[in-house]
Amino acid sequence: MAFNDIVRRGPLSLIAAANLTQGNLVKVDTAGKAALAGAGDVPLGVVSETVSAADAVAVEPFEGIVKVVAGGAIAIGDYVKAGASGKVVVETSATTPTAFTIGQAFTASSTDGDAIFIVSLR
Which of 63, 69, 100, 113 lies at a C-alpha separation of 20 to 30 Å from 84? Predict the structure, then answer.
């Protein structure tokens, strides 16, 4: 088997650990389910559709340009990381990436709940 035979692209199919909203950042919990990523977590990907707990959910791994939900004001070019409730927030220093940085803002957000695009750095 060639190495490329085991590389998977595209969405991952998981079971939602809780209600999830399109654009939320998620991680895999200890039961192997998609759970909201919070502050300090390194998320697996982004929820592609709104689902209820225990439903199947498609999770898009970070690759290229990704649509996410902002947790507050974010300027174009700011480095972002996972914040509370599965949303992205500005990195501790907006101009310096860290181990928790998941991307860089491609569009801006003026308030909590705005949908923005980030360029994945993962």
Answer: 63
Q: Do 110 and 73 share a domain, yes or no?
A: yes
Taking residue 70's Cβ as centre, other Cβ atoms within 10 Å add up to 25
DSSP-assigned beta bridge partners for residue 80: 90, 103
Torsion of CA 11, 12, 14, 16, to 10 degrees: -40
Number of domains making up the chain: 2
Sheet with 25-28, edge to edge strand ranges: 12-15, 56-61, 45-47, 25-28, 34-36
Task: Please state the pTM of the whole predicted model.
Answer: 0.83
Parent domain of 73: 65-120
The model's pLDDT over 25-80, given as tens digits with 9 standing for 90+, comes to 999 999 999 999 999 898 999 999 999 999 999 999 988 899 999 999 999 999 99
Does 71 fall in a domain? yes
| Domain's final residue, options 38, 61, 84 | 61
User: What kind and span of H or E run contains 56?
Assistant: strand 56-61
